[in-house]
Write a structure and sequence with these properties.
alpha+beta; globular; about 150 residues; OB fold (Dihydrolipoamide Acetyltransferase, E2P); about 35% helix; two-stranded antiparallel sheet
């Protein structure tokens, strides 16, 4: 029995509703912000600062590495890794590249379809050297080798 002087207590759900709304808003903001980052970058054009491995490099003025879209090269410590790294280095070292950023990977690298000044696609050129292959899981056969 409730007396007139007592205030009714809100249900537990009503008490935690603002907290739930704040958590949901934070999650939505984080998702939108991450997607917007890749979309906002669009195209990057810069000189190659250094080659990291057979499918990753850094551009001058960029803090994030660029992972070449659609390209799968062996890791440096695996068979063929040194050859893939050397081939990418020979292909792009000192060049000014144009990269269309298509994603950000789980390592926070920009994933881009990149082109040499003469218009050649880096992925296609690396596949032609035989030191790397098409990453069919992501390229969906774009380069015709899947």
């Amino acid at each position: 029995m409730m007396l007139k002087s007592q205030k009714p207590r809100p249900a537990r759900f009503i008490q935690i509703l603002p907290i739930c709304a704040l958590i949901l808003a934070s999650m939505i903001f984080a998702t939108v912000t991450q997607r917007a980052t890749a979309d906002d970058l669009g195209t990057i054009e810069a000189r190659v600062a250094r080659v990291v491995d057979g499918d990753t490099f850094k551009l001058s003025g960029q803090s994030q590495s660029i992972r070449v879209w659609g390209l799968d090269a062996p890791e440096r410590n695996k068979a063929g890794g040194s050859a893939a790294t050397a081939a990418l280095n020979a292909l792009i070292s000192g060049q000014t590249l144009r990269c269309a950023v298509v994603d950000i990977d789980r390592y926070q690298r920009l994933v881009g379809q990149c082109f040499l000044p003469d218009g050649r696609d880096i992925t296609a050129a690396m596949i032609m050297t035989g030191t790397a292959t098409e990453y069919c899981r992501y390229s969906k056969g774009f380069y015709g080798t899947c």
